[in-house]
């Protein structure tokens, strides 16, 4: 993959003297090409961004549902370089007993950047039922 109009390949790097907070090469060039192909389909971008268009409607729905807290096991994790602890904090508004935390060396795309972590959590939850 190259940056449009530049011909250069993206090369993510951590800030000097700091360890990476995400795994910049977890998403391969082939993965990026696949994402570009998928989002380039007619209507795909509009559908993907609809969650943001409906943010306030969704927020009202969550507020209404939060009046009756979830009593089921809930896990919520945010990537170290993305939402971090805010993910768990926001989920606890509707599931006060939710557990979770921060995924080290992870950005926004946990399943792509840390599939080992996601698979371990899924297996643990499946065994807990």
Structural account:
With 129 residues, this protein is mainly α. It folds into two domains: 25-65, no CATH class; 70-129, no CATH class. Helix content is 43%, strand content 8%. It has six helices and two strands, in the order H-H-H-E-H-E-H-H. The protein has helices at 29-39, 44-53, 55-65, 86-91, 110-113, 115-128; strands at 75-79, 99-103. It has a two-stranded parallel sheet. Mean pLDDT is 82; it is low at 1-5.
* Content-based structural category: mainly alpha
Report the radius of gyration as a whole number of Å.
Answer: 18 Å
Give the distance, in angstroms, between the N- and C-terminal Cα atoms: 42 Å
Uncertain stretches = 1-5
Q: How many beta-strand elements?
A: 2
Strand order of the largest sheet: 1-2
CA-based shape: globular
Report the helical percentage. Answer: 40-55%
Helix-strand sequence: HHHEHEHH
Count the domains: 2
Number of helices: 6
Average pLDDT confidence is 82
Name the beta content range: 5-15%
Largest sheet: 2 strands, parallel
